[in-house]
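Render this sequence as a predicted structure.
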Amino acid sequence: MYAIAIHGGAGTLARSAMTPERETAYRAGLATALDAGYAVLARGGSSLDAVATAVRILEDDPLFNAGRGAVLAHDGSVELDASIMDGKQLRAGAVTGLRHVKNPIDLARLVMDKSPHVMLVAAGAEEFALASGVALVPNEYFKTEARRAQLERVLTGDTGPAHDLSALGTVGAVALDEKGNLAAATSTGGMTNKRYGRVGDSPIIGAGTYADNASCAVSATGDGEYFIRAAVAHDICARVAYARVGLAKAVEQVVQDRLKSMGGEGGVIAIDTTGTVVMDFNSEGMFRGTRSSNGGREIAIYRNR
């Protein structure tokens, strides 16, 4: 048994802003990443390779808030974060504040595999990238006209539905491979108009990303500050491991109860060692997809589709 799930962000996905053309484009982007990650598993590849492959493709898709097409900070720059975790050995790698690394998830993987550290930040992370032979790109590479227009709307006080839709897109993946190993990965551009070196939950192991073969693998998306405070990803895995509740119940308790009680909005994708996938959110929608070796395949945006 092997399976993968991906997400492309959660939040107020106003149906009025989701034209048929946009929906088709989002679904196509999700499908490309989902099927590429699944193909890694189908040929006997590892869950780590599968999640990295899926996230890398989403980073390259300008529709999502990760890599090319990421949101802009207050000064008009792009700052990127990513993390990855291996459920077999509890190894992890994370990077934050990147401005020139084309695919942050690849650098997070290198931090995990080729350094004694878990997290590297900003200039130090990019120095490590250069030392590791990772090619850097100009910050302009990540910027799109849609993101420039979005920042302008925010700076003028416009926070309507169109802004809400275009601001979303943190991406992530979780997977179980045929050897029974779990992995999780998450990547983001953060939040529009962020200042002062803000870091959200995506690169924080235990908040936005966590994987442990003893329980489950989780990738989160939503209001990062709340996900950090609630240690969402680890909390879900801990409930599975220690309280012996099923994955669906653990996710419900954290996303629908605990997060809501704090005022946090967003969702998670999660998978356990049986291949059970749970994709749940307390917002209007979440870009998501899953595929497994039992033949199941789903791509959805809203609650029922």
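Summary. The mean pLDDT is 95. The radius of gyration is 17 Å.
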